[in-house]
Write a structure and sequence with these properties.
Length: 204
């Protein structure tokens, strides 16, 4: 979430929006460059996610703590729990990963089950927005300038020290967000901002 929409999340939190971050899996399948025992990695990932959310101004983080989504029972457990949570929270907007364009298989499953939860929940939700992580969007429906939030976004990503030891996610996303702002519109005479995130509407 911090990579794809950390700036937008920080902007919304600063404006007074109540944000609930839902983390489906416990991170045991993620890179483990330090060779920690699996349960140690799980606990560290949870602490990192909690600190990162705090940086962005997100006060509510819910951990489903599932080992993965590829296992059918885990997938259905996540879907059932997320459906109940959506009914309880009645959100105006939901953000998730794209169920086709993201190249990470677990990300696609997360986007898929989120879409299904919303389609099967008898509530009116304004929008289901996809953000980009392991798959860049060739088109988008919304662009958010995050100039004032880029520092918080980078700090939040920096809280995931166990993952940054393997891959420099911060460097990659900083360049992408800069590119999004510079090349936002072929017709513009000057960029409207310095950094931007993009979102695509997932049709229900």
């Amino acid at each position: 979430m911090e990579i794809g929409m950390g700036g937008t999340a920080a902007k919304k939190a600063a404006s007074g929006s109540h944000i609930t971050s839902v983390i489906l899996t416990d991170g045991r399948r993620s890179p483990n460059p330090f060779g920690w025992p699996e349960e140690t990695l799980v606990e560290i990932r949870k602490q990192e996610a909690t600190r990162a959310a705090r940086v962005l101004g997100i006060k509510e983080v819910i951990f489903f703590a599932l080992p993965d989504l590829k296992n059918t029972s885990h997938y259905h457990s996540a879907k059932e729990r997320l459906s109940e949570l959506i009914k309880q929270l009645r959100p105006e907007e939901v953000y998730s990963l794209h169920d086709h364009w993201d190249r990470h298989p677990t990300h696609r499953l997360a986007g898929q089950l989120t879409r299904k939860c919303i389609e099967e929940t008898p509530l009116f939700i304004d929008a289901l927005w996809a953000y980009e992580v392991w798959g860049l969007f060739s088109r988008w429906d919304r662009l958010e300038y995050i100039d004032d939030q880029i520092g918080k976004k980078m700090q939040a990503i920096g809280e995931h020290k166990s993952q940054l030891a393997s891959i420099p996610y911060g460097e990659g996303i900083l360049g992408l967000n800069r590119w999004r702002a510079v090349f936002a519109d072929p017709q513009q005479t000057t960029p409207q901002g310095v950094f931007a995130e993009v979102f695509f509407t997932m049709k229900l």
